[in-house]
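Ticket opened by: R.M.
Priority: normal
Category: complex prediction / small molecule

The reporter submitted a protein together with NAP and asked that the result be attached to this ticket for the collaborator who will pick it up next week. Submitted input follows.
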Amino acid sequence: MGVRPSVRPLGCGASVDPMSEERYYADKVPETHEPWVAAPDRYQHLEYRRVGTSGLLLPPISLGLWWNFGDDRPFATQREILRHAFDRGITHFDLANNYGPPYGSAEENFGRMMRTDFKPYRHELVISSKAGWDMYPGPYGKLGSRKYLLNSLEESLARLSVDHVDIFYSHRADPETPVAETIGALDTAVRQGKALYAGISSYSPERTAEAIAVARELGTPLVIHQPSYSLLNRWVEDGGGAGPRAADKSLLTVLGEHGLGSIGFSPLAQGLLTSKYLDDEPADRVGRGSFTDDAVTPENRERLRGLAAIAEERGQSLAQLAISWILRPGGVTSALIGASSVEQLDENLEAAAKTDFTDDELARIDALAGTVDGVDLWKGSADL
Ligand SMILES: NC(=O)c1ccc[n+]([C@@H]2O[C@H](COP(=O)([O-])OP(=O)(O)OC[C@H]3O[C@@H](n4cnc5c(N)ncnc54)[C@H](OP(=O)(O)O)[C@@H]3O)[C@@H](O)[C@H]2O)c1
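Result attached by the on-call engineer:
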């Protein structure tokens, strides 16, 4: 790292007011841009997990850019979080065409990282993107047609400044388009070299089985499912006698039987499963478009407090317990979290070191965990 003089003349003979903005930046910004160098010990922190029976390994905790990486957040903060994540062993960054706000901006901002700090590390990264939810107006900017998926992938690659993504997902189930067309589009993406693996997100167990059958026939490396999963949203476990899917197999069972891995998104229920909601005071949130505090009823707050008490006995915060729990044996391959600060990320990363639970802990957690209205925003897709 270069050491710069504390006072820099700003042009010929200009005097610098010590309180001025120029002086502030003269002290902060290095004269010569030196490339960022990732921490040499970055692979000492996490144990990587196999995605089903595939060759792909993912970190137990992956970072998503749904919120906190749009144009509404300073790039310097985004860069600090992304650098820190990679330094701590997070190799997987999850995006979608419409992450922002505005749509596309998270990919653009991540693309800036790819052209600068992450450029020498492209092959150490697993970058994913998706198409399926709405992106642009008209009939070709949503759902699961071949036209939408492949057009959108082209645009994502340009925004991300990469020539391929590592995983390309169908972001949601489509009630009209045949599953064979959607999976066929993912297959084309892989054959074109624009994606290494294929994934699906928020597909029901039945539709997942159908998608896997098509992929097997085509030879598509469909290796992963991305469902929502948290202590307050357990639909992936429903089936075989539990929950509304009593007659069917659960999603986790279907994935296990076919050798697919899983990455559970929103393990903190978008921030609800954190210490922010334990007190009666209003929560301190950076700001999220899709989350309302309506879910924080007195009854739910009591459940959160009960879960927080179990977490404390385990030497964890509520957020850590929530992440550890979805990573427990029999849970998902990776927990896909969001973070609006380096401090949150550091707290959450600790969860990866404590994913074992006693039977007693699991039983007490079961008594408190369960569906909270308004948390599963993706139910419309998973119920198709
Ligand atoms: N496939 C899909 O359809 C789909 C849908 C949704 C999400 N995802 C993926 O999943 C990723 C994560 O989703 P998410 O953001 O909902 O995940 P989450 O981990 O449930 O929530 C993350 C939010 O919780 C708060 N938070 C995180 N750690 C905290 C801590 N230690 N203490 C207090 N607050 C904390 C932060 O929000 P504040 O600071 O604002 O409170 C943060 O942005 C997304 O970025 C995306 O990649 C996929």
